[in-house]
Amino acid sequence: MHTKDLRKTPEGYFTSRWGLPEYTDWIDESMSWKETCSIGDWSFLWERRFKGPDALKLFSDTSVSSFQKFDILQSKHVVHTNKAGKVIAEGILSRLSEDEFMLFGRGTFWVEYNRLRGNYNVTSQADDWFNFQVAGPTALALLEKVAKTSLRDVKFMHSGEIEIAGCKMLALRQGMSGEIGFELQGPTSHATQVYDAIISAGQEFGLRKLGGRAIFINHLEACFPTIVTDYMPAIFDDDMKDYQDEFRRAMPGFASTFNVAGSFQSDDIRDWYRSPVELGWGKTVKFDHDFIGRAALEEEVANPRRIIRTLVWNGEDVSDVHASLFQKEQEPYQYMEMPRDQRGFMYADRVLIGGKDVGVTTSRGYSYYFREMLSLCTIDVAHAEIGTEVEVLWGEPGKRQKKIRAKVAAAPYKKDNRRADLSKA
Length: 425
What we know:
Radius of gyration: 21 Å
Oligomer: single chain
Number of helices: 9
Helix content: 10-25%
Strand content: 25-35%
């Protein structure tokens, strides 16, 4: 296992792993990936390179995804679960050659843990790549200019090999914004010159840097559930203690501390776990191979109890929460940070119908694009119909609480344009 310096960015050293809180302002930045384009720095993600004849078997054994078809320079969203079918971590796996793979995300720790304890003919090593996400309607034109080549034949979830500022890299067509986007991945030693070249060329394309305040609004609008924000890693059961100990030793202190807040309360940490089905990744689960958690997920996929939706919060009720800050005669409601909470908590709130709990909502955030307060919600299937009226209980127990009206909406809430035909872009 390995650690990684999360503070280093092309901008220098900051207290936030995403750079400054704002570069222009969070409203301007949050509109950029819909109107022009944005660049976000995700170089803090962990990467690990796996190589050997058993590498695919290792990934197959430890993830719900299918690898029956996996081309060179193709990438897959891989989800790792425990025996109960709850998510430990997820990330992106890219095939670099016939027997060489690069895995991004916290799943690197889980896969490496299983590699060391299994009979796999696989070697692995920590790597250190930059990862710049450039997305939005003008992103393609910007990247084609700075790379001096066409990217229009790159398929979704495949990479093109390009060169920017003398640095060879991969351009993975993905896009966490729900718009056409590419993740530029290459050796960290070239990060500054590549970043500077994109910024320099980006002015005519309306490029904006994404600061820490705006960077996760795209996850909310486009429904990309995030570890520690929308679910807790399923590593706190007794049979996972050995892994949990190794994980904590390998991670920096802030990244191995897990905090919960909100009106949802429980004495069982497993109530903050989520399955792939509950997070909207049910289509990723394939039963063409054996994997950890398969039996539990076969049952859940056949009979899902909860699924993910977006909640649209009532504007008048939200305004009342903010207005309470100016009421001197009583305690204000709990503050709603704008555009969303920045503390690194899993802020989970109860979702009610007629006083009965029907779900748990997370990722509350304000979308300036829609002019609405939104959240993601894991909700009972029986109450998941679009347009269903619910109430969110806002405020932690023991403090002033308010029932905020909300309506169930589709997830993703924003139209997914990632697979748009590049020949017409």
